[in-house]
Amino acid sequence: MTDMLLHNGWELVVGLEVHVELATKTKLFSGSPNRFGDEPNTNIDPVTLGLPGALPVLNQHAVELAMRIGIALNCTVQASTFHRKNYFYPDMPKAYQISQYDQPLNVNGFLMLPGGVRIGVERAHLEEDTGKSTHIGGATGRIHGSEYSLIDFNRAGVPLVEIVSRPDIRTSEQARQYVTELRAILLAVGASDAKMEEGSMRVDANVSVRKPGAELGTRCEIKNVNSVRAVGRAIDYEARRQIDMIENGDRVRQETRHWDDGEGRTHTLRVKEDADDYRYFLEPDLVPLAPSAKWIQTVKDNMPPLPAARRAHLSAITGASEESEAVIVVVERGQDDYIHEVVAAGGDAGKALVFVQQAFADETAQPRVPAKDIAALTVMERDGKITSTQSKTLLAEIVANGGGDAVALAAAKGFEALDNSAAEKMVDDVIAAQPEAWAKYCAGEEKAMGALVGAIMKLSQGKADGKVVTAILQARRTA
Ligand code: MN
To answer: Of 103, 150, 373, 375, which sits most exposed with the smallest number of CB within 10 A?
Structure first.
């Protein structure tokens, strides 16, 4: 475990709190639409604005999505209650947030990182989002130094699930993996669109350092970390800052800090409040939320396959590792079903994986190109009818046109791979024409190989396959 240690033998301890907005049609306690990007203050109603006499009514679909998240994270789904978390904020008109406190809906789960590390999940509870403030006139869009602020209540009351991990994360890489895997799970179960850049998935990191085996150090909570990359950078910066403080004889103060991605550093936001400060009490306008065993079972029975199982399946048919980037990325984009379609249409699974990873990077769903067209292309390349370079050209064309017959396209372009005997003849011709390069290559100068391969490719007008040519050259040298 020494590779887990930071410099001078310090150990990093991280727990993550992730807020996700649920993909419901309406808000958690009212019928106003839950929609991102609408005209400000149009998706509002008396409950959203906290007007006197307005009463919350719990959204059943939000509860179901929250249960799906809990089940996907191996939690126990239990009877729960709602509390009022009291504090004033301009974009929270009731001056309290309805949340779950000592009896959350989902408890005691875990998330397995793709490498097999298990990260505990303490709880995943339901709560409502606040509105959104926009500070105008300041330098960085922060309230400090701004001239005035605009408030949009469209987001107020949007259903959230807050997923709290145990402090089991030991490296910034594990933190990135956790966020990436959690995001893939949320997408797979349809609970959220989980867009970090739009704020529908928001990560706070609790960071502390200690000597291995010692008690937990004082933690700081880092807010405003809005990309997977920023999660890693913010944690690395904060660990470094805390170690420097302790080694200089200072003490780390428990506080909430703001990550500034542009500056690459954290700033003090506020000295950390404790749970007592929020004066939690039971929400008198809502009954306890106790899903029946039958309802929980129905949700369990209808869970879609999770990313880990889908990666295992994709790995089994393509031969690529479950931890390979291609497998991870394609499952995360939800394009693994498409590869199964390509294979069902007679395509080569391994090549289909590479093609889909490369060609459909901008899509987050099933590609619209007919699977049979991709299948035909994979077969042509596998059978050596076209070179890999030619196949890339055809793939780009098929994708741009939303489909196309690979055989006809190859014929129209005059694409064909050379058969092996023609390729061997060209290799011999080029060796004869460039004796110096050949001698250097035979003497072990690998750079000379590039010149030879280039000359052969040119002679073949691109019809030779670089891999085949290289193999023939190597065979000639050892012969
Ligand atoms: Mn929260």
So the answer is: 150
